[in-house]
From TrEMBL:
Domain ABC transporter: 113-342
Alphabetized Pfam families for the sequence: ABC_tran (PF00005)
Designated name of the protein: Putative ABC transporter permease/ATP-binding protein CydC
PROSITE patterns registered for this protein in UniProt: ABC_TRANSPORTER_1, ABC_TRANSPORTER_2
GO molecular function annotations of the record: ABC-type oligopeptide transporter activity; ATP binding; ATP hydrolysis activity
Alphabetized InterPro entries for the sequence: AAA+_ATPase (IPR003593), ABC_transporter-like_ATP-bd (IPR003439), ABC_transporter-like_CS (IPR017871), P-loop_NTPase (IPR027417), Type_1_exporter (IPR039421)
Keywords on record: ATP-binding, Nucleotide-binding
Length: 344
């Protein structure tokens, strides 16, 4: 804020100073005030015009200093947070079988997710979940809707299920069809609420999920989330560059684009944080229903899908869809009891 406040006066001061210097230089050749305008000596009409326009042009060129100051402060704060993480990082953990997690390939075969006595929370916050933890089994094709008020810990639970936060109690594991353990992170696709949109083409933004996706697969994913009309309206279609990243799209388009990215990801466990945010009520309900359907839905019948949402229609959907379960985080936090596990 301080940098932003200082940038505009600085730009104005630079413009005035430049104008004064040019004016002094030009006026030094004028014998008697502005008499040179009439006699053709000293300050000519053209020079006078340049002198008048100079402050405006100088201010225009220094105007971006405001945003530069803001971005400088944001970058400084971001760098401080990144370095704090780097300084506190320990050695890389090893996945089952002794393979470094960073080198482990994505697991694409169906898995079963087991949640046993899970309690969760962020550093320096109280534990969330019932006293005896949340326990459930999600087989291939399992669907779970997590609902709750804002700030109730839904996103924190999703980060824990993704293996990005350590559980406060209990464990989250997954096994393949033969019962062998599978690294949780290698089998998980996490859809963050504020997922990043890169300042590149629409196609490249989708290929982030899977670099070998074909043109047909990309088109199918775009159509499945309702973005075909928007893509067709772009100057270069999928090859149109999104200048500024997320600033080039609306909130709803961003959500659909991130959802299309999740569709292309091959991981068997899909964790979605508020995928229908910024969509109108009808579209949100329609997409949420397609997310929780095994056969004929957005995701295949062998993939596990966990959806975090505050949409009130979620209770109705979980009760009507076979195999879809519901976990109400608000009730868990308030009463210490797991409420509304339905079906499956």
């Amino acid at each position: 804020q301080a940098a932003a406040a200082a940038a505009t006066p600085l730009a104005l001061g630079a413009s005035v100073l430049a104008a004064c210097l040019i004016g002094i230089h030009l006026a030094s050749s004028v014998p008697t005030s502005l008499a040179g305008v009439a006699t053709g000596e000293g300050l000519t009409p053209m020079a006078l015009g340049v002198l008048i326009l100079l402050p405006l042009s100088a201010f225009e060129s220094t105007g971006p200093l405001t945003q530069a100051g803001i971005q400088l402060e944001r970058s400084r704060q971001s760098a401080a947070r990144v370095m704090a993480l780097v300084d506190g990082a320990g050695p890389p953990e090893e996945a089952p079988g002794g393979t470094d997690r960073t080198d482990r390939p994505i697991h694409t075969a169906p898995v079963t997710m087991r949640i046993d006595g899970l309690r969760w929370g962020r550093p320096s916050t109280p534990d969330l979940g019932p006293a005896d933890g949340v326990s459930m089994r999600l087989p291939p094709g399992g669907r779970l809707i997590v609902v709750g008020e804002s700030g109730s810990g839904k996103s924190t639970l999703l980060l824990t299920l993704a293996g990005l936060l350590a559980p406060r109690a209990g464990v989250v594991t997954c096994q393949d069809d033969s019962g062998d353990p599978v690294d949780l992170r290698a089998a998980t696709c996490y859809f963050a609420e504020e997922g990043h949109i890169f300042s590149t083409t629409v196609r490249e933004n989708l290929l982030v999920a899977r670099g070998d996706a074909t043109a047909a697969e990309i088109s199918d994913a775009v159509a499945a989330v309702g973005l075909s009309g928007w893509v067709d309206s772009l100057p270069d279609g999928l090859d149109t560059e999104l200048v500024g990243g997320a600033e080039a799209v609306s909130g709803g388009q961003r959500r659909r684009l991130l959802l299309a990215r999740a569709l292309l990801h091959p991981a068997p466990i899909v964790l979605l944080d508020e995928p229908t945010e910024h969509l109108d009520a009808d579209d949100a309900a329609r997409i949420l229903r397609r997310l929780t359907v095994g056969d004929g839905g957005l995701f295949g019948p062998d993939r596990i899908v966990v959806v975090v949402t505050h949409q009130t229609v979620a209770q109705e959907i979980s009760g009507s869809e076979q195999g879809c379960r519901l976990l109400e985080i608000a009730s868990v936090a308030a009463t210490g009891k797991t409420v509304g596990n339905a079906g499956g």
